[in-house]
Amino acid sequence: MPPLPQSFFRVPVDELAPALLGCRIKRGPVVLAITEVEAYAGPEDTASHARFGRTERNAAMWGPGGRAYVYLCYGVHNMLNVSAGEPGQASAVLIRACEPVAGLDEIRRRRGGKSGVELLAGPGKVGAALELDTSWSGHPLHRSGGLSLLPGDAPRRVLAGSRVGIDFAAPADRDRPWRFAAADTAWVSHAKGLACL
């Protein structure tokens, strides 16, 4: 199956985020279905890494859409994001949780033998399962090979709520309903505060 075309990603970030639910992330033998995401806009979004402008770290956010943005959180967790929109918009979608589709034994090995939802319910866990590091930032996800995003089955129902872990942001940005999750799965990192769209 070919990856999603670049045109799929060149839409506003709050449109791309729910559209990613059900899509597949593939790296080698590991294939994951996306179950939970968060959208982050450009410099105007005080919760976004782009709020201080373009840096070496966040350069992949600035597009074009369809690139990986991988950053190291707390010096421990590599977090996978997908750039959205047109070049210069600096928006990206954080992949918060996934469900395994293929390569379960390899996922469990990379996650220290964990099993069940604990394997992939959290953005750092997704990064570990895919064995990512910051060298993947800028990688085109719309091309085959390495790390790619493939079509999948969209969830029948979608939940939405405010983003988590952004207490530093302005109140209006903290309240944006920009966290999205598949409703009919247990593979979600933070179910509290989510409601059906």
Automatic annotation (TrEMBL):
Gene Ontology MF annotations: alkylbase DNA N-glycosylase activity; DNA binding
EC number: 3.2.2.-
GO annotation, biological process: base-excision repair
Classification via Pfam families: Pur_DNA_glyco
Catalytic EC class: hydrolase
Classification via InterPro entries: Formyl_transferase-like_C_sf (IPR011034), MPG (IPR003180), MPG_sf (IPR036995)
Keywords linked to the UniProt accession: DNA damage, DNA repair, Hydrolase
Family: Belongs to the DNA glycosylase MPG family.
UniProt-recorded name of the protein: Putative 3-methyladenine DNA glycosylase
